[in-house]
Amino acid sequence: MSTPEQTGGVMPAKIQGSGVERLRASAAEASQVRALSTHPDVVALRVESIRTQVDVSMWVGIVLGLAFTMVNVQAFAAQGASFGSLPWIAAWLLDPMVSLVLIAVLRAEQITARYQVTDHTKWIGRTKRFAFVATYAMNTWQSFLHADVAGVVLHSVPPLLVFCAAETAPVLRDRLTEAVLRAEQQAAQAAGTTAAVQIEEAGASPSPVNAAPAAELPAAPSGPETATGDEMPPAADKAPSKPKRPRTTASKAAKSSKTTTTTGRKFLADYVADALAAIDTGGMPDEITPAWARHTTGCSAGLSAKVAATVRAELPTTPSQTIHVTVPDAVRSAA
Questions:
Q1: Cα–Cα distance between 265 and 123 in angstroms, integer?
Q2: Keywords on this record (predicted)?
């Protein structure tokens, strides 16, 4: 049986390697969790779950508080009435009348606060305050008449709690909605910043074919030389019908189209490839301008200048740049 000393420390290396793999897997998982935790859809899902819990808790507290005040209001309204008489039965309708109006207002605020719609007439606040004052007065009237401090405190807690819940619930719903909107704005800003950086990096890369047109021009004769008609080079009176692009452009266009298909976002090289393809199809325009680049490729106004400059740099000699050969005077006189 071999020991770790006999194997030359292989087992500690295996243990260390397995630990590194576990840490690498944990780091990758933590990175994914962090990226998903700030995703707008995940934030919206969590906010909706919390919103449901807040709404249920608020409504349970409001209903229990209104049920407590209903008994006190009935006792206040049915003073001196015999049990089971018509005034005694009608006294039970006073508090539900106020409570139903308050519940209707709170239910409407639950929807308007979700979409951050504010009340400019102030009638919602006035209705809630009137309902609170009426309920509070009817609950604590007898305690104030008898100077019962304990009764005042006891009968003041439920109306005050209902009023605080009615004022706080819309604010909480508005803040929850704002949290969702802020998460969406931060995600949109991050995506825009990433796209701008990628466009700038693509635009800053030098074009390897800028010096190609200059290398194709033949050298002019250095001095007067005698030449016969057979040795005379043909004059370049006719310009080529269509300028030829360097071979590297086709490979660049194929690479850019592959990048666009993979990422779903167009870079500077993609717009340049589209412009060169449009020139191949429709012919050379009179002038390559940023407006022409925007019309042809659909790029933005900020990127059109770079697209036009890159297209002009990648095109070979234009038809207006013809080659003139100097003919000596002796040959011209002999002719």
A1: 51
A2: Membrane, Transmembrane, Transmembrane helix
Structure tokens at 118: 């504010």
Would the pLDDT of 60 be above 80? yes
Residue recorded with tokens 């003139």:
324
Question: 56: buried, middle or exposed (CB in 10 Å: 19+, 13-18, 0-12)?
Answer: exposed
* pLDDT per residue as tens digits for the range 121-145: 889 889 999 999 999 999 999 899 8
Determine the structural domain holding residue 311 and report its residue range: 212-334
Report the distance separating Cα 49 and Cα 51, nearest Å.
5
269-320 pLDDT, tens digit each: 888 888 888 888 888 887 888 888 888 888 877 677 888 888 888 886 444 4
Question: In sequence order, what are the residues at sequence separation of 6 or more whose Cβ sits closer than 8 angstroms to the Cβ of residue 242?
Answer: 283, 284
CA distances from 213 to 34, 208, 229, 314 (A): 51, 12, 30, 8
67 shares its domain with 188: yes
Q: Is 332 exposed, middle or buried (0-12, 13-18, 19+ CB in 10 A)?
A: exposed
SS3 content of the chain, % helix, strand, coil (to 5): 70, 0, 30
- Among 38, 173, 161, smallest CA distance to 118 is for 173
Structure-block tokens of residue 131: 């309902």
Is the domain of 224 the same as that of 116?
no
**In-domain check, residue 68:** yes
Residues 166 and 127 in one domain: yes
pLDDT at residue 221 tops 80? no
The three-class DSSP label of residue 160 is helix
61-87: average pLDDT: 89
End-to-end Cα separation, the chain, in angstroms: 106
